[in-house]
Structure formats: structure tokens, C-alpha cells
Design a protein that fits this description.
Blueprint (H helix, E strand, L loop, with lengths): L12 H13 L3 E2 H4 L5 H6 L4 E4 L25 H12 L3 E6 L10 H14 L4 E5 L7 H8 L5 E3 L6 H7 L5 H14 L4 E7 L5 H13 L4 E6 L16 H14 L3 E5 L17
Parallel strand pairs: 2-3, 3-4, 4-5, 5-6, 6-7, 7-8
Antiparallel strand pairs: 1-2
Helix pairs in contact: 4-5, 5-6, 6-8, 9-10
């Protein structure tokens, strides 16, 4: 198979250093760095970043993910305030907050998510906050905490099709993710988003079926992107799709009834998150 080499923009060293300095001073982690996201340069140029709370160590071990796995860190009660401070210093108007899985915590980290939203909104109530959450093992109390947090959009990634889910996310569950998304959609008055990676071995028919299942549980926004293997130890890429295929899938998704779709080789779940669906507002 021919090796795929995406056109990734070079990092601007001055801008990158500025952002990294602010993150370092405030002891914060971004998924941009932890997951080696190929869009770091473009997002940094837009003064944008996706923040990863609750430490840099995940209690799960998904085969596609570059975030390290192990025992979760002690929850830092000061993190919400430092996060809010950094967002103010960066001058952001729209932020995405995600986290590692914290199956070791009683509420799976939901309360910490809510504390972050509260701290951010206290400094600037006009900032839009999108939460990209774990499944919280479908603990409805945790899900209610997220719903009532004051977030402006909720997201949870389905990641892949049903047949591949167990091998890609061995400690997660395809149906459980659908339940989480349905719970969000039924109890949250704003938009719910999910994301799928392509190239893990799925068929087009399976992809379309998963898209339909996401739509059926109430997901209104969808992102589709090419899976890129972080290291040789991770799940291998089974197929590289063309940009034309991503355009085709976007048209299919919109035709199904999704209100907003981002689909492209380097699209990730929080890629240009502030613009997704704005043409429909």
C-alpha cells in the first residue's frame, strides 16, 4: 500500500512558543500536543486549542490513541481557574474541553468538567464552551452534571463502526456510546456532535449505517476524518481515502439529515469547531 503523506502545515515557532508558554505557566495540557494532532499549526495560527483536563494519563487504552495510559493522576482542584485564566490570556471566544477517561473517579470526572465551564463563564460569560466528553460508563448522574454545566454544545465520539469498535476501543462499548449520545440529545436543548475515523477497516455500507444510527439517537453534527497511525504500535491504517470520498460522505450525511458536517482527510472532532454549523444559525 502506498504511504499516505498529508499536507500538514508547518508550525509557526513564535506563535507556537507563545501558546506553549501560556499553557506551561498555567500547567495545562492540550489534546493538540498529547495526541500529536496534524492540525496543530493551523489551529495555533487561529489562536485556537482544544484543552485536555484531568491529567495527561488515560485509564483506558484505545488502540488508535496516542495519549498515554495508566493510573489516573490526582484531580487538580485549581485546574478550572488556571484554565479560565489561560483562555482569557489567549483571547479565545470558543473553546473545546475534553479529557482523558477517568474510570477511577466516582463521577468519572463529570464534576471537574462542570467546574471548568463555571470558571470560564465567570471570567467571560460570552465565551462559547463545547464539551467533548468520555462515556462516563453511562452514569446518568454524571451525564446530568454535564448537561447542567452551562456548556453550549456537547459531544461524544463514536469513533468507528460497530464491527470494529471492540478492537479499536476495547474498554468502551458501541451501544453505550449511542446511549450516551441519545441521553445528551434528549435532555440537552442545544446541539450534540459526534465523530468518526475512517480507514480502520470499515466498509462504506458500515459507515453509512453508523451515520444513520448516530442520526437516529439525535446527533445533529458530525465530523469525519482519516485515521492516521500515531506510531507503529497503534492500530494500522487499513485504507487511505481520497478527498473526493470525504466530499461524498459529507453529501451523504447532509442528505440523511445532519444539520452540519465537517468531512476531510485532516478533519478531527474539534477542527474548526467554532464554525461548524454556523451557516445554519
Amino acid at each position: 500500500m502506498m504511504q499516505f503523506k498529508p499536507k500538514v502545515k508547518a508550525l509557526n515557532p513564535i506563535l507556537t512558543q507563545k501558546i506553549q508558554n501560556i499553557l506551561h505557566v498555567n500547567s495545562l495540557t492540550t489534546v493538540c500536543e498529547a495526541a500529536a494532532c496534524p492540525n496543530r499549526a493551523e489551529c495555533y495560527a487561529r489562536n485556537s486549542a482544544t484543552f485536555m483536563i484531568l491529567g495527561d494519563t488515560c485509564t483506558r487504552a484505545c488502540t488508535f490513541c496516542n495519549v498515554k495510559t495508566g493510573q489516573g493522576n490526582i484531580v487538580d482542584a485549581d485546574e478550572p481557574e488556571r484554565l479560565a485564566k489561560a483562555i482569557k490570556e489567549l483571547g479565545l471566544e470558543y473553546v473545546v474541553i475534553t479529557s482523558v477517561d477517568r474510570d477511577d473517579l466516582k463521577d468519572y470526572g463529570a464534576g471537574h468538567f462542570a467546574a471548568c465551564v463555571e470558571a470560564i463563564k465567570e471570567k467571560n460569560s460570552t465565551i462559547k464552551v463545547e464539551l467533548l466528553t468520555p462515556d462516563f460508563k453511562y452514569n446518568t448522574k454524571a451525564l446530568q452534571t454535564i448537561i447542567q454545566s452551562g456548556a453550549d454544545k456537547l459531544a461524544h465520539n463514536q469513533e468507528t463502526v460497530r464491527r470494529l469498535s471492540k478492537s479499536v476501543r476495547p474498554q468502551s462499548d458501541y451501544e453505550r456510546s449511542l446511549h450516551v449520545l441519545r441521553y445528551y440529545a434528549q435532555n440537552f436543548s442545544l446541539h450534540v456532535k459526534s465523530s468518526l475515523m475512517l480507514g480502520l477497516g470499515e466498509t462504506k455500507e458500515e459507515l453509512l449505517q453508523t451515520m444513520q444510527e448516530l442520526l437516529d439517537v439525535g446527533v445533529s453534527e458530525l465530523t469525519l476524518g482519516q485515521y492516521l497511525q500515531p506510531t507503529q504500535a497503534h492500530h494500522k491504517v487499513e485504507k487511505y481515502y481520497s478527498s473526493e470520498f470525504f466530499d461524498e460522505m459529507k453529501a451523504e450525511a447532509l442528505g440523511m439529515g445532519f444539520r452540519a458536517v465537517a468531512s476531510g482527510i485532516l478533519v478531527r472532532s474539534s477542527y474548526f469547531a467554532e464554525n461548524l454549523g454556523e451557516e445554519n444559525e
